[in-house]
Amino acid sequence: MTRSVQVGPGELGLPATPLVALPGDSPALHVRARIDQQVRALLEHEAIARQGVDPEGVHQMRVAVRRMRAALKAAGDPELEPLSQELRWLGGILGRIRDIDVLLGHLRGQAADLPDDEQAALERLLRGLVEERRGARRRMLAAFRSARYAELLNALVATVNAEPGGHEPAETRTAGLLDVIARPHRKLVKSARALGDHPLDDDLHALRIKGKRLRYAAELAEPAGGKPVRKLIRATKEFQDILGDHQDTVVAETEVRRLLADQPATDAGVAFVAGRLVERERARRADRRARWRDALDEVDRLAKALR
After folding, report:
1. Single pTM value for the model
2. Is 109 exposed, middle or buried (0-12, 13-18, 19+ CB in 10 A)?
3. DSSP 8-state symbol, 25
4. pLDDT > 70 in the chain, percent
5. The domain 180-302: what is its CATH number?
6. Superfamily for the 7-165 domain
7. Cβ contact 184:161 at 8 Å
8. Any idea where the domains of the chain sit in the sequence?
9. Per-residue DSSP letters for 117-169?
10. Per residue in 123-161, pLDDT tens?
11. Average pLDDT in the chain
């Protein structure tokens, strides 16, 4: 069944009030509460994404998808893997339009202090990217109308409403919730140690993704860990932001070169502004490469303190 208009949480069958998980509750309840919270966020920001005015709608939908996938991974239930894969599909649909929004914002920001004629040349350079965004938006809206999306929402609601079995002692529950941090922390540090003094751009991008997984796991564990976990979340976000900026510069330079290749050879203004942008991207990339290890050391210290 397709869905041409958005539905609300109540129409989908979510609880009248959001689920709340307390520090002594089971990890399974914390996962259900996290999914409940993020489905509501997904629906709230879908309305903004449909309007197409504020790019934050797509961004927050994508964040909700990633947080739900992290929660499902923390649950450790193989039966939930198909649901995680469907969230991955939705994340891919949202990801393309979000990546273009980030790139457009980044390049325009880098050129904000350039003279008017150079900014006009930048807009000529970006025409192809703007058209690609229109296509990505059409695909996103088609996904929102699809039976696949409706079935995904129904499956998420069923997960929220499922009653978990078992009755663990309170002290075991709290420890189990903090344990969800250990695995992504271990993977992050192990991957970082394997990098040489001059890691490849792709390796730093992969490291950032591992840092993001640690952050989402920490967010899930925050009710049990309190202030120490909140400090870890802040430090992990700082680490993410540094490597996120690094990746933005890598993508921006690649895209500027690709877009330039599609321009008329006679447009000297576009070629000039493209050269200026590439120079700025490389300077920014060098700065982020000099900072990420210190940020990771702080993440590692705070994660180890939770053991």
Report:
1. 0.81
2. exposed
3. S
4. 92
5. 1.40.20.10
6. CHAD domain (1.40.20.10)
7. no
8. 7-165, 180-302
9. HHHHHHHHHTHHHHHHHHHHHHHHHHHHTSHHHHHHHHHHHHHHHPPPP----
10. 999 999 999 999 999 999 999 999 999 999 999 999 999
11. 90
